Fold each of these.
Amino acid sequence: AFADIIPVTMIARMIGIPEEMGPQLFTWSHAYVRMYMFGRTREQEEEAERASKEFSDYVKTVIAERRAEPRDDLLTHMIHTEHKGQYLTEEELVSTTIVLLNAGHEATVHQIGNSVRTILDSGGDPAELFRDEATTERTVEETLRICAPVHIFQRWALEPAEIDGVSFKRGDKVSLILAAANLDPAKFTDPLTFKPDRNEAANLSFGAGIHFCIGAPLARLELNVVLPILFERLAGLRLAKTPVVKDVYHFHGLDRLDLQW
Ligand code: HEM
């Protein structure tokens, strides 16, 4: 009711998709992210195929509308952005829009849930944790460190390399476990404890290097805005039931977080 609706509304508004489409965007994206999962069935694959076709057809209609009638939204900017005489093709516009819509909500939804749970589990006083902007920012960063929504990304070695005593040859596939880096005892003292006032390394929840999350500023902004509002409006917020962790491989998040206040 809370975590689901905010990120999809924000990203739809930014791109220029009517926000009433939120529930439909969810249905499409939930259908095709099943392609990332182990043990998927033929039926789920066909459903994913159907969803991606419907999703791209829908995005094409919005692109056509914006071409005819430009607005001040991201989609219009993407249509008109020119680089060395080149524009994005129709296919590039569709896939970029879909990747932004998808990336723009799934991870942030999970991180809102993870943050609320982490804060409640810590027993910290929300009035203190969200005292002002600087404190709020530290609280948000610490929840991102200790309970990141995206745990693993993969890379291929383009050339032989030796890193921390591990040898890689060209073509090796490497899994980077961001969540483990966030709990590295060489970087964070007492890494499993929630300590928003720690002044140590930055967390790696948004990755690093050339693929560093393009949406990090937006996700951070959303978290810094919505968490203080939730805790302020629902004073005495507490867990009503044991949180239900989502049984998926590609995200670390919750299926349900039942609360009382
Ligand atoms: C708490 C929320 C989020 C988390 C934890 C997160 C995490 C990440 C991580 C770890 C990567 C790096 C992937 C890699 O190394 O291959 C990434 C990439 C990316 N993220 Fe996010 N993300 C979040 C929110 C968002 C939002 C709101 C958007 C869109 C507005 C977004 C769009 C993207 C895109 C497009 C990439 C690919 C960047 C590239 O390959 O150059 N993310 N994200």
Amino acid sequence: MTQEKYTRQTITARTEWIPGKLFSITTTRDPAFQFVPGQFARLGLPENPQINAAPDLWRAYSMVTPPHANELAFYSIVVPDGLFSPRLRDLQIGDAIYIDKTAFGFMTPERFPQGGQLWMLATGTGLSAYLPMLDDPNTWQQFEKIILVHGVREANELTYQDDIARFARTHARHEGQFTYLPATSREKLPGAPQARITTLIETGELESLANATLDPAVARVMLCGNPAMVTDARKLLTDKGFAPGRRGIPGSLAVENYW
Ligand SMILES: Cc1cc2nc3c(=O)[nH]c(=O)nc-3n(C[C@H](O)[C@H](O)[C@H](O)COP(=O)(O)OP(=O)(O)OC[C@H]3O[C@@H](n4cnc5c(N)ncnc54)[C@H](O)[C@@H]3O)c2cc1C
């Protein structure tokens, strides 16, 4: 028998955040599957289960659960004419899902030195990668200040707020260690800027809102989600002196593009 590169797991829970648009699934976990917060799994499904039950469609998904959890969870958009995400959305509790035995990805806090501020900038489902970091006490030990910026179009896409508040209550070492900054681009939300993340960086408003300076001497920045945001924000940050780590030298910038 050939040794498969993946394991068969089972859906144990589903959450519909916005019907037909945003959902989460929880799955069983192979005890041998190891990862660090910020990494992603490759999920597999058969394109046509009637013809072939073996998985032939594979997509990357960041773990939203921390490494110490017994199960895995993933947060997903539904791309209406996408091949994978509508199939993932249709899975019911008890259905099978396939997970590559290896976790991937380098946008992890361990790439950064001890101390300073961690800025987590996400658009949409890019939030996923930051949730296990926020649910990990090591992140709160590593950084003096953590700033989470979640950019979405409409306010109902600001998901996981209760969990984020709970992580801060559980792990924050001091008052003011954590700042959560939601930003909506197509809807006015009281107390939150109506602007894109890149505009907020450019105008300096992000620094005012966070009460912190985007200075590579003290700040480490992660960018995750929409590749246009990642490219534009990376340019703005490079101009400020931010750079990814190289040849064992820790950097001040780490990114993950979702497509
Ligand atoms: C490293 C990595 C981690 C990822 N983690 C996640 C995750 O945690 N959650 C998640 O929902 N997706 C994530 N993705 C994207 C995911 O792999 C799929 O692309 C997505 O679920 C859509 O699959 P699809 O086959 O339906 O459409 P695809 O054919 O893969 O994508 C079609 C188009 O949909 C758009 N699109 C794809 N993904 C997204 C998205 N997340 N948000 C908005 N628009 C999108 C893009 O325009 C893309 O060209 C990740 C991708 C990478 C590379």
